[in-house]
Amino acid sequence: MNEMDIQPWLIRMSQGDEEAFQAVYDLTRDQAFGLIYYLAPSKHDVPDIMSEVHEYICE
Question: Taking the model in full, what pTM does it have?
């Protein structure tokens, strides 16, 4: 995936398109999880942090 692949989805997502949000989530969840796992001080908190990140994005 490169920036050009995701850009149309990000635009649609910013306009409230739930299908676009799901597409962006599907395209980025593995990378997001990996980054959160790497940065989290407590590995058992990773699922909660991941959930909070996506809740924040949906606001």
Answer: 0.70
